[in-house]
Design brief:
This protein has 154 residues and is an alpha/beta fold. The protein contains 5 helices and 7 strands, in the order E-E-H-E-H-E-H-E-H-E-H-E. Helix 1 packs across helix 5 and helix 2 runs parallel beside helix 3.
Length: 154
Amino acid sequence: MDPTETRPVSILLVEDDRIDAKAFLRAMEQVRISNPVTVAKDGVEAWEILTGEGYEEPFTRPNIIILDINMPRMTGIELLRKIRADEKLQDSIVFVLTTSNDDQDKIDAFNLNVAGYMLKSDMGNSFVRAVELVHKYWRVVEFPVDKKDTVRAA
C-alpha cells in the first residue's frame, strides 16, 4: 500500500445480544458511517478474530473495538485484560457499550485504559449517540502513523 493512500478504520463490535448488535449497525447507517464492522457474539469469538485463531489472518488494523461487558464464555473485562496483555493488541482503542452501570465494572474498564464507557439506556438514541461519539473521536484525535498504514476516519 502506498503510504499516501488511506484505508478505513475497521470496527469490531463484541455483542452477544443480536437485537443490540442490529441496533448498533442501524445507528451506523443512520449516522452514515460506512466503515467495515465485524460482529463477534462474545469475548472468545472476538479474541479469535483479533488474533487470527481459526481465521486466515488477524483482524485488520487500525481498528476500534466496541465491547459489551456482560457476555457468556468470556466477559468484556476478561477480553479487555487479554487485549492489554498482548503486545500486538495492547494499543487497541476500546470503547465499552453496555447495560452495566456497576461502579466496579467502570473502575475495571478504566483501569484497563478504555477510551470511553457508555450505557445502553435507550436502544435507539443510546446507539446513535455512541456511534456519533466514536466517529467524532476518530476524526478529532491524532494518532501516530505506521509506515505501512495510513489512518482514515469514516
